[in-house]
Give the backbone structure.
Amino acid sequence: MQVNYQVGGDRHTYDPGTSEDLGDITRGIEEHLRRNHPELAGRDHLTEKIADGLLNGLAGDGTDIELGDLS
């Protein structure tokens, strides 16, 4: 599984690991985003955006999670 997203016009990919716990995956993605992109630190909608992307990815046929533009 890979997480695809954009910040500041740049496309990024992140591998959240092998956990099967959706809560752990969501927290891991959020921690990665806040640590590697400090400009996202104050975004309250980030958790919901990650959860929506994760659920949409799991509901589809693919294995990737598309979060879109997070800026």
